[in-house]
């Protein structure tokens, strides 16, 4: 499939007479796909059971007539006000016990049966009307699951559903008590109705309770999505997708993705740098107008896996956003470069959000490709350049990687549940490994942890922090033949969230048992060698495994047996660089803002810095990319 | 009117036999006014409908007999405990949904009809008893509206009143939906009862919703005040006033002031420096015992406008207070100097809070002019010196200014509703402009933004950050003939809180449209010239307006057309200094702690520093003022 | 009594066949005492009224047969889930109004009569079964009162009990109104049912209200404890004790201790350094793996007083804990050294928590002496060394001190209620005095403030910050004949929490009245002499008392009359050192990590530093102690 440019459009926001001109200009810009409808429930069904299809029919007609392919959203992220009259208890409840009210979006609990049915009904009527319409190129289910912290809910609906979920999992309260270790502190339950959600407890709840709750809410999201898929699937042949949001970890994207045909995500590089990236101030200042050089790539690689190879950017930042602590404008070139980079990672469509900046409501200061007065914003020119560039690309760009990074949502929940130290975060660990690999010039596949997965074909697999692996997962990783790096905190807990006996990591061929873990305060950074330190975390092992690296004080931090490595501490970026160079044989690290992404046929050299960088005989302009054929 | 000294006194706190001695000593100190009664509801009406006038009659008698003029407060800030039995739902509710309980003061929601009636009834009985009593020199309505964050309430009473307020404003839900842009995210309402208060929403509520709520709560305060005025006004000829609190912005003081005869405010320079001023630590350390050199003056000028020329300091800090994060004692001389400064700005009365430090309850560590053991505290001597100084002043001191600063509460709410960047605050902007003008030696009138206002007669009008202006307001400002500085963020939103089309600021004669705004992180400070930077905010314009000033990287930050200027960024203090020197022609800036305030006949040179400062051939002692006749 | 080593053990957590081996290994380690049962309610009474004694009988049998003395806990800290069905309102309520739910421990309000009775019933049945069993060496009542912030509760049960408590104290609402000064802000009550708990008020509640509430909740803890004591006492001759937690100040430990025979506390030096000690980062880094050099000693001395001479460490940190912001492992030697130090302060038993690390539930990452896989953890060897060292000690070690520090919980509540400045904390003040005395080489007795106490026999009594003293308490202190240091903030409030008239401190023989207090911002540190400063707090006095020390600017900070001193400011550590050297005649201060503790026969020289320290001709190894006979 030829990679192409899309845009998000809200016909219901604009006078109907502007639609044809908008459509024509989109096409002139080189745009091929247009997403509509995902927030329009109150216009599709203004009153319960009363549908207004006319405007939507005409909008689809205008857009498709201009040559655009339609991506139609199901509007379940924005139930109308009247839905609350039907289901007053449909709202999610926050951890302090307060219902999260109507007046923005995503005001529902995924566990609420009534609203779940209503959302599926909406899918059914949409599918009945447009399911066989060839102008619909794809369907988006709901919008940005988990955005605004909407996965964890402590509602009555969630409480009842959690009890049912536990009953199915454990079959008897006695089994649950054993699995959770509820004998501790007399927390034993006699009946399913004894079990509550793990908020507002006097001190931390049982981590097994917390982790099962997190598994439960993730399942609720997956079931919620599956319910809409089940309603739509029989009515359409068009692919189904969802648009995930950056660094949302509260549900398992692979579970949701399993029911869909394509993954997509909403990429706001500058907003994310400001609001959801831990980094040194100097780093944030350097990339203030470009975004972090690895954050987008990480998610591109992640969603390629979630989409089983098929993925899009559904919303691409087109200028300043409105929702981060600071909202600077992109440096010239970045709005185009982000699209090029996504395509280098295999994106089929890069869709800008949004066509024209809305002059009202929550996002009125969120840029579009067009200004509110219908004149072109800076993003439009860049989108056009991106479209032209994509047209000049070879039709087939197959991402190619020799390195795999395993990313596991369950591990994130496990770490959040039992952090054992302030600032100890799974995503940060995985991302620091990813960044180090990228600094060494690697192209990376991100993969889930799966029992039946064949991890063969990689030179190196990096799998940090997988808190729990079953035997088949461990086997899949260790038998792949690749160099393997696991640890820290890998396979140190059972699936029931207990410490295994014998202790983990229990890696075949590596005689090592982690007996004790330490967390360190921020600022305590034992030396490994000059300007290489570890921090935050140190494990202490027992066993005969070879020690490949020690702290200056002698404490081992890296164990090895053949190609299998176990990291027993948290390296700083410089030490990560050394480790990754050792594992990959990379002769040097790339400049701070330069990254490489390979496809089977081409090498993309991407410069996130403002200034040109010399590399390997080439000069890469600032905020630009070189696309080199691979020899 | 001869400026004079007052004091706040609580006869109900003290044994009756001490009253005559207290009154005599007040008179000996040079005090002419005494405020009483504003917290005494439980003594005036100990049980519902049972009044005890005896003590109050006698207190008024004792004080007035000694020659003191009485300011009598209505006690609505402290409803007795039994009022809650009548109106269990009268309490305000915080943003998290919790009622704010009895046990301190201001425990009521301004929107509660029942308590509003009860408070008006209390005014009526007070007025009936004392309204024609010549010993009552003025009436204070309630006490410190908004103190302790008491304007925004999310009670049932507020919810119902808000729906009525919206129905009156918009007439139909459809009109409201259009005005707010509720088609966005399907937030459309079918009925007034659909509308809730904008707290606890999943993500930010519609800014139009939030801004209308803020307008509504401001109106509730004004209506609350007006209800008491309506009850009292027919019963008395004495002037009515209210005592506002420093940097309280949640209601429109001009609206409240329109119904009153005099404005007053409660000036706690050291408490405010500690708890409600953003400033560098070195600045705070330098003025720790004096207060900020501009904070009091700003409010003096503001309340002169709110009082339509007539204003008092109702509570003047007399020593250490009890409520700020740190509570140091005033430097010797300041308790007097603050009074002198107020008079230089036109105050009619400066009233110290309080006569004798109470040895019990919440404010027992708040200093008075007298210690709890009835011996003189350091403030007493200074109050006496201030009284003596005032007696030596010419009777008529008419403040005189060539510069006007426009201050607009609606703009503050608009900025808070849609900040588009952490730390972006309207008051900070207005105050930084005020400080810069004062550093240039200017005397300033602060004025509201008003349709029918004649702004003529000023050399310079500074009007930063007025988010929305109607055509008449814009006309009034631009047609004044003065040099005018507007921006940043001026007239960029419609009254319905949408982006206008064509874009603002739409200043007659200045061809400039702001197309895009950026917020920057703290610490990012683009250079303009050596040691001059902008920060936080940058607007990008379109149009033919002359660029008067650019950043070093070429981006315009000041536009000009004749005498009209538009500032498109947020200057730091040094750059503000340059801009203000350009606009005023001031040859230099005053020393950091020195300020000038002119009246028609005199120039007050006020030194907030501890050490003497040489200025224009004079030496101004530390914590003191020179009063020079104007040539 | 020969000091000895104990351990905490949870037979209900382990398969019964492991019990004999565990018991044998405990004995081999030199352990003599084993605590069991304190969290086992759900196993003792699995269903209401249905008791299962078999397992507990057998556990006691196995342990006692091996030669271990049993400490049996009452399980009231962990009511089973079914207890909530009996008493749905038994949960404590947090300050925001949310019930604190089941799912961890300590989920009860001390004021709830029903659960109080249920807990006493459990004591009765335990006492009936084991009260005369000679194998039970002691009983522990409940567990860690106040842990997880569980003293202050805003439940309905607390509200009703508070009204009763006030009615008993004041007899009439009028008396309460007078005592609290409720005329201020019309806060007067007509009836007991008018009074609410002091949470969620609009601004701060009346401090007298808050302080009475704090006294009330402390009484609730004492009554709660006394109720269990009353149930158990007739049924057993074994001593009763409670295990207090470090730096828990919300209830008066002396009140609870009065009903018990022995005090004990739970000593987690590294956890406490991380989570409840204010100290400079460099200090925290230096002692990261050892704990603060004075924090344990302070509590040892405190609980020796609470236990009226008899005290234990009931839980001693054995390795990394799981609950602090960072959880590093102890430096080698510390697990032993902490036990030695406790014994130097007079501990009868030092009991490690816990025998084997639990592989499940909340504390699964809390180390034990054994790893979860039943192999020895590093703590086991150190515990054995400690046991061997203790066996070599002379049987009788009587702590001996020439200096007394008065510690008063009421003062802590008074300071918290009326801080008059951010960061102004009573514990910090007392602890800074204690540290200074220890740096000067002193051994210290910590004592309560008591009317009938004979403080004779000390060379020096340090009594900082006692907010209120009655005449007999003042007499006891000043008539002791010792050098006495009082202040700052001593006797400045009446028992009703008003400012006395005449003003305090009213120390016999010292003509000084504190007229005004100032709090300073962090970072403001007036010089006293080179590198000696005061900060945060300054009092201003009146009177003829000799000034012993002044700030460089002349303001007095230390007053004196003969042997009586009053400190009028908050000294930094260096100034504290000077003051203490003056008062004690100590020629120098000890090195930062070295401390001395004397018994009648021996001097313990304890080195908290990692490196050896030379002292008085001896070399003290790092993390070790010398035990020298006293000449
Ligand atoms: Zn280093
Ligand atoms: Zn500079
Ligand atoms: Zn110094």
Features:
homotrimer, 631 residues, alpha/beta, TIM Barrel, Rossmann fold, 3 domains, seven-stranded mixed sheet, 18 helices, globular, EC 3.2.1.23 (chains A, B, C), metal ion binding (chains A, B, C)
Describe the structure.
Chains A, B, C: Belongs to the glycosyl hydrolase 42 family. Chains A, B, C: Zn(2+) binds at residue 109. Chains A, B, C: One of its GO terms (cellular component) is beta-galactosidase complex. Chains A, B, C: This is Beta-galactosidase. Chains A, B, C: It catalyses: Hydrolysis of terminal non-reducing beta-D-galactose residues in beta-D-galactosides. 3 copies of one chain form a homotrimer. By secondary structure, chain A is of the alpha/beta class. Chain A has 3 domains: 4-152 and 221-392, Alpha-Beta Barrel (TIM Barrel); 159-207, no CATH class; 403-584, Class I glutamine amidotransferase (GATase) domain (Rossmann fold). Helices cover 32% and strands 19% of the residues of chain A. Chain A has 18 helices and 24 strands. In chain A, the strands form 5 sheets. In chain A, strands 1-2-3-4-5-6-7-8 form an 8-stranded parallel β-barrel, surrounded by 5 helices. Chain A has a 7-stranded mixed beta sheet with strand order 10-9-11-12-18-17-16. In chain A, strands 13, 14, 15 and 19 form a 4-stranded antiparallel beta sheet that branches. In chain A, α13 (334-344) runs parallel beside α14. The longest helix of chain A is centred in the middle third of the chain and has 26 residues, at 207-232. The model of chain A has no long low-confidence stretch (mean pLDDT 97). The complex binds zinc ion (3 copies). Residues 527, 531, 533 of chain A line the site of one zinc ion.
């Amino acid at each position: 499939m030829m990679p192409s440019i899309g845009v998000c459009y809200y016909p219901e926001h604009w006078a109907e007479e502007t639609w044809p001109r908008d459509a024509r200009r989109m096409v002139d810009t080189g745009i091929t796909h247009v997403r509509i409808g995902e927030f329009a429930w109150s216009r599709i069904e203004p009153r319960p059971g009363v549908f207004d299809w006319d405007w939507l029919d005409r909008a689809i007609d205008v857009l498709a007539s201009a040559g655009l392919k339609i991506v139609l959203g199901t509007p379940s992220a924005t139930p109308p006000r009247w839905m609350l009259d039907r289901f007053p208890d449909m709202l999610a409840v926050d951890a302090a016990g307060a219902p999260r009210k109507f007046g923005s979006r995503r005001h529902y609990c995924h566990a609420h049966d009534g609203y779940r049915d209503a959302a599926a009904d909406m899918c059914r009527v949409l599918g009945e009307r447009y399911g066989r319409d060839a102008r619909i190129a794809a369907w988006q289910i709901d919008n940005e699951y988990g955005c605004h912290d909407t996965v964890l809910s402590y509602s009555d609906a969630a409480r009842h559903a959690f009890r049912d979920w536990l009953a199915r999992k454990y079959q008897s309260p006695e089994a649950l008590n054993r699995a959770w270790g509820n004998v501790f502190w007399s927390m034993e339950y006699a009946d399913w109705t004894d079990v509550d959600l793990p908020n507002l407890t006097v001190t931390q709840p049982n981590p097994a309770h917390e982790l099962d709750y997190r598994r439960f809410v993730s399942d609720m999201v997956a079931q919620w999505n599956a319910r809409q898929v089940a309603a739509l699937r029989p009515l359409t042949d068009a692919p189904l997708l969802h648009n995930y949001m950056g660094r949302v970890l509260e549900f398992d994207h692979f579970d949701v993705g399993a029911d869909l045909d394509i993954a997509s995500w909403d990429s706001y590089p500058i907003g994310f740098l400001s609001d959801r990236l831990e980094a040194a101030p100097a780093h944030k200042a350097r990339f203030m107008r470009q975004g972090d050089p690895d954050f987008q790539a990480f998610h591109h690689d992640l969603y390629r896996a979630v989409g089983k190879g098929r993925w899009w950017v559904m919303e691409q930042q087109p200028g300043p956003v409105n929702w981060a602590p600071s909202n600077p404008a992109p440096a010239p070139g970045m709005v185009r470069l982000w699209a090029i980079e996504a395509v280098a990672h295999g994106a089929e469509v890069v869709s800008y959000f949004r066509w024209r900046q809305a002059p009202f409501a929550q996002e009125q200061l969120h840029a579009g490709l067009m200004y509110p007065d219908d004149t072109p914003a800076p993003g439009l020119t860049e989108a056009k350049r991106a479209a032209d560039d994509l047209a000049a690309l070879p039709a087939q760009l197959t991402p190619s990687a020799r390195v795999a990074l395993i990313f596991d949502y369950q591990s994130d929940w496990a770490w959040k549940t039992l952090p054992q130290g302030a600032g100890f975060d799974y995503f940060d660990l995985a991302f620091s490994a990813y960044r180090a690999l990228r600094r060494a010039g690697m192209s990376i596949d991100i993969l889930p942890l799966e029992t039946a997965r064949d991890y063969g074909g990689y030179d190196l697999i990096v799998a940090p922090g997988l808190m729990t692996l079953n035997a088949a997962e461990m086997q899949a990783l260790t038998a792949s033949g690749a160099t393997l790096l696991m640890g820290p905190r890998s396979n140190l807990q059972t699936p029931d969230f207990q410490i295994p006996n014998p202790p983990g990591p229990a890696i075949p061929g590596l005689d090592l048992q982690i007996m004790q873990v330490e967390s360190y305060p921020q600022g305590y950074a034992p030396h490994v060698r000059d300007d290489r330190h570890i921090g935050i975390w140190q494990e202490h092992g027992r066993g005969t495994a070879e020690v490949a690296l020690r702290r200056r004080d002698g404490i081992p931090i890296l164990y090895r047996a053949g190609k299998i490595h176990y990291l027993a501490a948290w390296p700083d970026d410089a030490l990560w660089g050394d480790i990754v160079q050792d594992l990959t044989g990379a002769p040097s690290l790339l400049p701070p803002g330069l990254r490489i992404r390979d496809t089977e046929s081409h090498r993309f050299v991407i410069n996130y810095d403002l200034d040109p960088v010399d590399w390997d005989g080439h000069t890469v302009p600032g905020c630009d990319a070189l696309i080199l054929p691979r020899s």
